Automatic annotation (TrEMBL):
Pfam families: Helicase_C, ResIII. Residues 293-442 form the Helicase C-terminal domain. This is DNA/RNA helicase. It comes from Enterococcus quebecensis. Residues 109-261 form the Helicase ATP-binding domain. SMART domains: DEXDc, HELICc. One of its GO terms (molecular function) is DNA binding. GO terms for biological process: DNA recombination; DNA replication initiation; double-strand break repair. Keywords: ATP-binding, DNA-binding, Helicase, Hydrolase, Nucleotide-binding.
Length: 442
């Protein structure tokens, strides 16, 4: 019956467990709000009854249907989490935290001990995961249940083995939409934020990595999932390099404790984007011509590093590829976007230095590290390039220990607020890092 501890699942999700009818708690799946409306108790969304009625007369929830249909003819099966029991947990980590990381790690531990929430605002490439280890160890030894969730499955896939390596004897599970492994109870788990909808008062500590990323940001369904998944007495930990306005506001109003880590572990400043006018780039590429400024920039950058070119739309990417290939026939080149079936192979290829130039959509704005790259954002004034997207993109450069003089360039034909704000934020973090003696001046 352990499979039901802290869970909130439909019968079809838990086949093959004996004694489930007699020994589990059953909870309603939906709640009538008033004559007209009904709320789904898995995802919290409120629907007009007339729009969600089935032929049978039951009501269903269209909002979370991708997790399997919830309707009023069903019940949720649940059992409360057992009491926490202290235990010894084997922990191996040979690394060392920087002074800045250590401060954040200590603060985080203090917050968790007090069951308070905290945001960690750490610059791209700061080394966020390492700062969690000590706190996770404390939680496990206290008998707590701890979840690490991210809106992005690729982030989950990367986090899981890193955490498992540090707690080699700990049972862990990775939950996401495409997994084949059956669910089992573990004290420590990594999952996508969608999977949280299947939990109820389960976690003493819930970490949400990349809290500002799609699809979590501004998504009331996933927020409801988080609130349902944590215990009443618990800590939420938000990790981000680019907090939303809402999180910044909560910090300023002292409603949310925040630790800022303004420097990377290698103690160099974040590369500050430089801007360059690129006359009518869009029209030129559409006509199959190459914008002069772009080609000149690629030429200088590619002599020192590999080059990532961010492009605002997929159709423009294909046109740009033809243009760049013509100019650089000897440089191995690829393009990649979210719908590309060879996406993973191409990213791997870039990591393995099989390409010198990679043209990409915003999918590579976060979560990836390449050695020795420079970045060009073509059409940085396009509206897909929000402030946070630009900060994340600039953060792809100079992440490794060895310095390769990587650069970040915003090519545009009309400077936007988003571009200026991104540059301002990066500079602000750098000066904070210098002030706190976390950055060595070069
Ligand atoms: Zn729902």
């Amino acid at each position: 019956m352990k499979e039901l501890w802290g869970r909130k699942v439909l019968k079809k999700e838990i086949t093959g467990i004996e004694g489930i009818e007699e020994h589990s708690q059953k909870l309603p799946t939906m709640k009538v709000q008033n004559e007209k409306e009904i709320q789904c108790l898995r995802c919290g969304q409120i629907h007009n009854k007339r729009e969600v009625q089935l032929v049978s007369g039951s009501f269903f929830c269209p909002a979370c249907i991708q997790l399997g249909r919830v309707d009023t003819s069903q019940m949720f099966y649940h059992l409360p989490e057992p009491e926490s029991i202290k235990r010894a947990v084997y922990f191996v980590w040979e690394g060392e935290l920087t002074k800045g990381q250590q401060e954040v790690s200590d603060k985080l531990l203090t917050s968790v001990k007090k069951a308070e929430s905290r945001m960690i605002w750490a610059v791209t490439g700061a080394g966020k995961t390492e700062m969690l280890f000590k706190m996770i160890h404390y939680c496990l030894e206290s008998g707590y249940r701890i979840g690490v969730a991210s809106p992005r499955v690729d982030v989950c896939l990367e986090l899981f083995p890193r955490i498992q390596a540090v707690f080699p004897d700990e049972e862990m599970i990775l939950l996401h939409g495409k997994m084949e492994e059956a669910y089992r109870y573990t004290k420590l788990l990594v999952c996508t934020t969608h999977q949280l909808l299947r939990f109820r008062q389960a976690f003493d500590v819930l970490i949400i990595d990349e809290v500002d990323a799609f699809p979590f940001v501004g998504n009331s369904l996933l927020r409801y999932g988080v609130q349902q998944a944590i215990k009443y007495h618990s800590s939420l930990v938000y990790l981000t390099a680019t907090p939303t306005k809402e999180l910044i506001r909560q910090t300023q109003q002292k409603k949310l404790h925040t630790s800022i880590l303004p420097a990377r572990y290698h103690r160099r400043e974040l590369p500050v984007p430089k801007i360059k006018w690129c006359h009518k780039w869009q029209q030129k590429i559409k006509r199959g011509n190459s914008p002069r400024e772009l080609i000149a920039k690629i030429r200088t950058l590619v002599s020192k590093n590999d080059v990532l070119i961010f492009c605002p739309t997929i159709s423009m990417m294909e046109q740009l590829k033809v243009v760049v290939e013509k100019q650089f026939p000897k440089a191995p080149l690829a393009s990649v976007h979210s719908k590309d079936p060879d996406r993973l192979e191409k990213v791997m290829g870039m990591r393995n230095k099989e390409y010198r130039i990679l043209i990409t959509s915003t999918i590579l704005e976060r979560g990836v590290t390449f050695d020795g790259v420079s970045v060009i954002v073509l059409g940085a004034n396009h509206n897909v390039f929000t402030t946070s997207a630009l900060v994340q993109i600039a953060g792809r450069v100079d992440r490794r220990k060895e310095y390769t003089a990587g650069e970040v360039w915003f090519l545009h034909d009309g400077c936007t607020k988003g571009m200026k704000e991104a540059i301002r934020q990066i500079k602000k973090m750098n000066s904070l890092g210098i002030e706190r003696e976390l950055i060595d001046e070069m």
